Amino acid sequence: MISVNDFKTGLTVEVDGDLFSVLDFQHVKPGKGAAFVRSKLKNLRNGNTVERTFRAGESIGRAHVENRAVQYLYSAADEYTFMDNETYDQFSLSGDQLEWELNFLQENMTVNIISYQGEILGINLPNSVELKVVETEPGIKGNTATGATKNAKLETGLNVQVPLFINQDDVLLIDTRDGKYISRA
């Protein structure tokens, strides 16, 4: 058990039989009444985000999730096959479990698998990945004052806004948390 006063971003807790990751929290001490903790939690099983309020000092269960390094091998239909780097066991996840992650997943990429008591909840990507631009319009010199962007389609199918100097076949560094352009690789 853990007190809600000890919440940290990224902490995994069990509330009402579901597993949640703490995205954000705020300790509130009103002038009148008891203190409480307002939190934003992400359900690790279905990806939904909920806001919950707990009384200060309330205890909830702490969930110990396991992270293991795995390698993405290939996809077939709507199944994505991974291999455990230690045991060489192979397993598949459905496209529904990897909705956002598919924008960044490349063959032979190493990611971390998140599991809880043998149940696979999803994967953790690195904070940034290198992806190649497969389609973009050429930037026209002199058509901007400052900070203009254009659309670029990457090798995984993700569309991002990039500066005008980016050309087709450039390799870009993309943030996997929000899908935005960071820099050229």
Order of helices and strands: EEEEEEEEEEEEEEEE
What is the makeup of the main sheet?
Answer: 6 strands, antiparallel
Tell me the number of helical segments per DSSP (H or I, 4 or more residues long): 0
Shape: flat
Task: Give Rg in angstroms.
Answer: 21 Å
Mean pLDDT comes to 88
- In the sheet with the most strands, the strands line up as 1-6-2-3-4-5
- The count of strands amounts to 16
Unreliable segments (pLDDT under 50, ≥5 consecutive)?
A: none
Beta-strand portion reads over 45%
Kindly name the structural category: mainly beta
Helix content: under 10%
Topology (elements, then pairings):
Elements: E1 2-3, E2 12-15, E3 18-28, E4 36-43, E5 49-55, E6 59-62, E7 66-76, E8 79-84, E9 90-94, E10 110-116, E11 119-124, E12 128-136, E13 149-154, E14 159-163, E15 171-175, E16 181-184
Antiparallel strand pairs: 1-6, 2-3, 2-6, 3-4, 4-5, 7-8, 7-10, 8-9, 10-11, 12-13, 12-15, 13-14, 15-16
Task: Describe, in plain words, how this protein is organized in 3D.
The chain has about 180 residues and is mainly beta. The protein is built from no helices and 16 strands. Strand 15 (about 170-175) and strand 16 form a beta hairpin. The chain is flat. The N and C termini lie far apart (about 45 Å).
Brief summary of the model shown:
By secondary structure, the protein is an all-beta fold. 0% of the residues lie in helices and 54% in strands.
